[in-house]
Amino acid sequence: MSRRALDSAMVMVLEAHGGGWMDRDEIAAEIAERDLYRKLNGEHPPSDQLRLRARHSHYRHLFELSDDRASRIRLRRRVA
Asked: Where in the chain are the domains?
């Protein structure tokens, strides 16, 4: 596994599924299955960590959330 940021791993998974809505738990499971990201302690991130990342102001340009809990996440559509 190469060292990449969690947001990059999330984008990779969402892009692989067309960028549309995905359940946060499914994204976390695929990140773990594909070993796209590990925390500094070597563990894969829990889905709640994806919620925190997607809600963070630094990443609002990347992600849209279905609700306050970020039950589902999708890539934000980019305007050309």
From this structure: 6-75
Q: Where are the alpha helices (DSSP H) in the chain?
A: 6-16, 24-33, 47-55
d(CA 62, CA 17): 15
Query: For the chain, what is the radius of gyration of the CA atoms?
Result: 12
Question: In this predicted model, what pLDDT tens digit does every residue of 34-80 receive, in sequence order?
Answer: 999 999 999 999 999 999 999 999 999 999 999 989 999 999 987 55
Q: What are phi and psi of 77, to 5 degrees?
A: -70, 135
Alpha-carbon distances of 8 from 36, 37, 53, 54, rounded to whole Å: 9, 9, 11, 11
